[in-house]
Each structure stands twice: as structure tokens, then as C-alpha cells.
Amino acid sequence: MNVRIEEVANAAQVSTATVSRALNNLPGVGQQTREHVLKVALELGYSPSHSASALASGTSHSIGIVLPDVSRWFLATAVQSIEMALHERHYDALIYTLPDDEGKPRPTFNPTVLRSKVDAVAVLSVYFSEQEVELLKSLNLPVAFLSVRQPGFSHVGIDDEAAMRSACENLIAHGHRIIGHLSGMTNDTCPNAPTERRRRAWKAMLGRHGLECSDSLDSPARVMTAQHGYEAAKILLNRRPDVTAIVASSDEMAMGAIQCLRERSLTPGVDVAVIGIDGNNLSEAFGLTTVAQPVYEQSMALVTILLAALAGDTAHRELIFPTHLIARNSTARQHVDIAHALQGG
């Protein structure tokens, strides 16, 4: 049976407030009294309530993590990395999901879910509306965003445009002229979303090389998962069977594209090249060429920013991490001279 704080107070012959202060190492309790309370608590086997400790200290030693879900590789990896970093610093994590799949509108952010439960908030791959920004600010807590750039808040991420340029350069260097794109859904209200930045970079890169970059080559998926990537690839290939290469905004979507190609008896890297962005730990098993991003390092930086803010450093930070291309069989087509290819030779 759980021992209550009142029992510790009665056995130590002090008030419950004194017990709470003694156990949380707060001022207002003499050293002798503190040691006496700790001794009694140990003898009774008392385990303090996390919420009660938070009330007594004014802090929860928890960080809220707001994200769409934990099923996608990038998000799951980020959450795991953040939790590892927090635990090393004796913090807990409180997960708050705002699902964005199944064709339903994303739930509106509700600050009461986090109020009085966390000391800071990490937002992963979610863009907040102006109304939600005000709700977030009402918490009066440090906030930092991972992946999505939210104006007015600290941000950690990658150069999405550079990642897409690297992917396109790889395909163009292999002689591809008709390069399809599997993207996230277009969203005029979220111009800073990674998917939007990657889409713009895909168009700009192809345009720079005089290649077609029409909407018929862009096949968006509501959520960047393997299943949605598979469906988006089917639409793309049905609409544009002349595609010789596919660049996907995520590795999971690229994996779905590979499955779609195999079902059509097409060999990835021979008949149609495929490249993704992320560095998913399953990409090697798929033979997938990918532009890898350092998710662990980004997550560590996000935690550092939030804990620094809790220590008084409230300056907005912008940390951009480099990416690097890992070439595999999915883009193994024999190199063709670009100028020759563009002339139709």
C-alpha cells in the first residue's frame, strides 16, 4: 500500500509542507529537520508524488513534446533522442500528439493539456496557426520547434532546399530528364513547412537545368509514410509513365515508391531511379539512395536550447544542420553526359 505524505508528517511530527520542502530540497527547512524527515520517509517507504513535487517546487522537471504521431521514423527517432537527453538531465517527457492523417482535420492545439505539467515545450513537425500560436504563448514557457520554422520561436532543422538540390543533382548527373516528385500536401498557410521548401527547391533545380517541372510531375501525399508514398507513386506513374526518376520528400515515401515499381516489374535504379530524404535506418535494406539528416544531433540541440531558456537564456536560436548524400543501388543507372542527355542523345 502506498504511504501518504500525511503519514510521514505524523511520524516525523512536522507539517506536510515541511515534509514536501525537505524531500524536494527547498529552503525553509533546517538541516537537522531535513535529515529527520528523510530518515522517516525512508523507513516508511514513502515515494513522493511527481505532481505534488511539482506543486511544491513550482517546476515539473518535464518537457512537453508536441508532434503528429510517433509512427514515422523521423518523429520516433527524434522523440527517442529527446527523451534520452532529458533523462540524462533528470527530466521527463510528456507526449502530446496532434494526428494529421486519415483525411481528418488536425486537432487544434489545446494548452490545458500541458499547463502546469511541463516546464518547456518542444514542437516536432507541426505548424501552428496564428490562433494556436497565441494559445501556445499563453503557457508562458520556453518553446522550440524541430523541422518546421515557426516565426518568433527558436528553430532546429536542416537546409531543406540544399537537401533537395543534392538529391536532384544526383539524378541529373545520372542523365535523368523526367524527374517526378513525391511531396507532402501543398499548404498555403504553412509556407515554411519542410515539404513546401523541398517542393520549391525541386522546381527551381529542374528549371535551372532546363528540365520540365510541371505540376503533373508532382504527386503529393497527405502524410509522408510508405503507404502514402506508394499511393502517390501509383498516381505519378499512371499520369506520367515517361518518368525515369523519382525524388521523394522522405525515405518512407521513397520506400513506398520502390514497392510500387516492383509491382510493375520495374527495377529501381535501372528502369526508374529513386532517391529519398532522411537517412532512415531501413534505407540500406531497400538499397535506397538518401540524403541523410542528423536527427539525433538536431534533437540534442533542441533540448539544449530549451534547458538554456529555463536557465535564463531566452534568445531565439536558429540552428541548421548539414545533410549528406548516401548513394545506393536505387540510383545506380550508368552515368550519362548531361549535355548529351539534354540534347536527347
TrEMBL record:
Annotated InterPro entries: HTH_LacI, LacI/GalR-like_sensor, Lambda_DNA-bd_dom_sf, Peripla_BP_I
UniProt xrefs under CDD domains: HTH_LacI, PBP1_LacI_sugar_binding-like
Domain of life the protein comes from: Bacteria
Domain called HTH lacI-type: residue spans: 3-57
Keywords linked to the UniProt accession: DNA-binding, Transcription, Transcription regulation
GO molecular function, one term: DNA-binding transcription factor activity
Entry-linked PANTHER family: LACI-RELATED TRANSCRIPTIONAL REPRESSOR, TRANSCRIPTIONAL REGULATORY PROTEIN
Protein name (database record): Transcriptional regulator, LacI family
